[in-house]
Write the structure tokens for this entry.
Amino acid sequence: MPEGWVGGVGRIIGRVILFGRKRRVIRNMRMVLERPAWGAHDWEELWRRHVDHLGLAVAETLRHAASKPEDLRERLAIDGDGLLRAMLRRGKGAVVFVNHLANPVAVPLALALAGHRVSVATNVIPVPYLDEKSSELFERFGGTRVTVGGDVARVAEETLRGNGVFVGAIDYSSTQSHTAWVHFGKAELQVSLAPALMALMHGSAMFSAIVIPEGLSRYMVSLQPVVLLDAGGGPIDRALAITRDAMRGVGEAVCHRPEQWWRWDFPRIRSRPDST
């Protein structure tokens, strides 16, 4: 796909993917974002920007699938790779917490292109063509993709035992197992504790990734080390404390650039119990 086509194709894709979801998306935006002075027109404008961004990100991913490795390396930079490599010298692998801000595909792609052994857990994409292209993309550049409901635990264990990098989302889960509610803007979001639990189980280093757009189809992947908090209790308590801490940065970024978060149609957002 020529670069000049990405924007136009993206607008079409966004409207197809989010067809019929406008009411839910705007409702969730209103629950999370602190915008007291906004009227209906402002929320409509944010909805339009969100549709365009989501479609653009998908179109960019399709274009990545046909790109040469050297071209992608110029478009996907990593801030924090030196620290990641230093932690990998411990020999216990690393778990990178990813979220659905900007273009999450950039995280495992950038890591694989930098020479890391990478596996990533994702949900099944409900559009078969896009799901197939996603798997082809990771395989082409040396990564391994496993879908939730598949053998995620085995793939993660093999990656970490081989001193590789396992990438898992914390701001979304299609299952109810190993989840918890954390503050997210002025609401709460149900998040996945699975990546933190895997890191704790294997003694792996932990990083939180934030993707920052730097122009059309260009991203900076910022890797921030996650501090192993002494929360007491068992693995679930420790995983919750770690995930809650990582989600603070995600929540702040989403509130700053809300149109770029993919999961506004996610139903597991609720008002805080203490909200009035």
